[in-house]
Specification:
Blueprint: E1 28-31, H1 35-46, E2 51-55, E3 66-68, H2 74-79, E4 87-90, H3 95-108, E5 113-117, H4 121-130, E6 134-137, H5 139-151, E7 156-162, E8 165-173, H6 185-189, E9 194-200, H7 208-213, E10 223-228, H8 240-257, H9 259-282, H10 288-300, H11 314-343, H12 346-355, E11 362-365, H13 369-380, E12 385-389, H14 397-402, E13 407-409, H15 415-420, E14 428-431, H16 436-449, E15 455-458, H17 462-472, E16 476-478, H18 480-492, E17 497-503, E18 506-514, H19 526-533, E19 536-541, E20 546-547, H20 549-554, E21 562-568, E22 582-583
Parallel strand pairs: 1-2, 1-4, 2-3, 4-5, 5-6, 11-12, 11-14, 12-13, 14-15, 15-16
Antiparallel strand pairs: 7-8, 8-10, 9-10, 17-18, 18-21, 18-22, 19-20, 19-21
Helix pairs in contact: 1-18, 5-13, 5-18, 8-12, 9-10, 9-11
Amino acid sequence: MKLKAGGGFSGVTNGKAMISFADIKPRIIVCGLDATGYKIFRLLKHQGIAVVGIHDRPLPGEGDDVVIGDLQAAQTLLEAGIRDAQTLVLTDGEDGTNLGVLMQARVLNPRIRIVNRLFNTSLGERLDDTLPDHITMSVASLCAPIFAFSALGSAAIGQLKLFNQTWPIHQVHIDESHPWRGRKLSDLWDDRDRMLIYYIPAKTRLDLVSAVVQGQSLQVGDRLIVGTKPTVHAAQQRSLSQRLNKLLTALKYLRQHSKGLLASFLLLLVMIFISTLVYVSSILKTSPVDALYFSVSMITGAGDSLVTVGNPPDSLKLFTIFTMLIGAAIIGLSYALLNDFVLGTRFSRFWEAARIPHKQHFIVCGLGSVGVQIVTHLHKCGHEVVVIEKDPNCRFLSTVRSHKIPVIQGDTTLPTTLKSANFAMAQALIAVTSNDTVNLETALNAKSLNPKVPVIVRYHDPEFAWMAQLVFEFDAVLSPAELVAPAFAAAALGGRVLGNGMTADSLWVALATLITPAHPFCGRSVQDVAVRSDFVPLYMETKSQTVHGWDLLEVCLSAGDVLYLTMPANRLEQLWQSTPSQFMRSGAS
C-alpha cells in the first residue's frame, strides 16, 4: 500500500463532551464546496459515508448528492435533508456565511451536530462553550504545524495530539542502508519517545500488533508510520561572533537609512567650528572655549553670550547674522530628521535589523493566518524566526513583535528583501502568502540566491500543488485544503478525535474511547481486540495509572478505562452498539 500524497495526521482538539457513536452514524452534510469543502466531501464519500454537499453553483461531475442553492436559505438546507442529518460540516471560506448557516440549521434541527470552519478562533471558542455539539476548526491551526515540520526537515505528513503535545507523524521507509533494517518491531514498541502508528509490510499482510507479538523483523521495502515525541529546541548561547554580526548588520542599516540625519549634524558641526575660529581670530581677548560658547549660543539661540565683544566691526556683525540664519535652518532640519528617525518607523526598523539572526534561522514570508501560526509554532520550539511582510497594517504584526521576533516590511519577491533577512545562511524559507503567484516567485528567487536552502511553498489548489513541486523541484509544495481535509472528515464522524491520516485511500482516525460495561471490548485483552478489529493501541488510562508498551497489550479492559487507539474510519461501526461506547472530551494527561 502507498501513503497518499498530501495526506497525514492532523490534530483535532476541540471535541464536545460525551458524544455517542450511535448518534453519529447517519448522514453528514458538507456546506460550502470550495477547494477545502470539496476535498472533505469527496473524502467522506470515498469512505462509504452517506454524505450530501451544498454549494451555490453547479459542480462538474456531481449528481444528486450535491444540492445547488443559497447556502443560508432554509429551503436549500431542507432539500439537503437537514432535519434527518446528524452532522453539518460548515466549510465556506467566509466566517459570516458559516455563522448564517449555523443559525438557520439550528432553527431547523436544534440537535444537529456542527463542525464549523472559522478564521476567528476566539469567536469559535466562545461558540464551543455556548452551543452544544459545536466544534470549531481552523484551517490555519491544522496545517501550520505541517509546514513547520516540513521546514525542519522531518518530512512530516501531519500531527497527532497526545499527552498535551503535538507529535509530528512521518513515514519511515526501510531500505538497504536504513539502521532499522533487520531490527525487530518489538524493540521499537516499548520506546516512550516513539509511537508506532501503522505498519505496512512489503511481503505480508500482517497487522502491527501481530508483528510486534511475533517478533517480526523489518525488511527492505517495509514502511512504518511513526509519531515522534516533540522536543523543544534549546536556544543556543549566542557566540561573540554572532553578536558582532548582528551589530554590524544594524550599523549597516543605520548607515543606509540615516544619511540625511548624519549629514545635517555634520553640517551643523562644521558651522560651529567655522564660527568659533572666526570669533577666536576676531576677538583676540576671547579664549577658544568662550568663542565656542558664543558660537553655539548665536547659532542655536539657546543661551546668552558670556563674551563681551565691545564694538565689533560691521563684517563680524554680518557674519553673525548669516551664521544665526543658516544655523537656525540646519537645526530645524536636524530636529525634523531626528524626529522622523526616532518617532517614525526607521528607529524601530533599526532594532529589527539588529535582531535579525545571522544563520540557522527560519524565514517566513507572509504573515497571514497560516503564517502567524507557523511563526508561533517555530518560536515555541525554540527556533529563531524572521518574518517578511509587505502590509504595514497587518493585524498579526503586534502579535509577532510581542514575542520579539524581527519583522522586515518589504516585498518578498525582491532578492534584496531576502538578502536583508540573511537568506543565504537560513535553515529554511517558508513562502505562505495568500497569493500563489507571489509564493512561486519568492521561492524561485530564493533558489536563485542559494539553491541549498530548503524552500517550502504554499499553493492553494491541491491539484496543482504536486505539479508545482515536480516542475520547480521545491523541497515541498503544500496545499492547506489537502492537509486539513482528513481532519475535518474525521471530526465529521464525531467524538473526541486526536488525529487522523490517509494510508492508501483509507482514512484512519486516532481517538479515545471510554470502556463501558456494554462496550464490545469490555472484558477482553487489548492484544486480542486489536488483532481482531484491526486497530493499533497507543496507550490506556485507568483510574490510577497510564499503561504503555508491552503492559498495554496484556491488559484486560474493564469499565472506566480509557483506551487511545488508531483504527480505519470505515471500521468505526464496530463501536456502534446498542449501548454505545463514548468518546472522551478531556485530552490525555
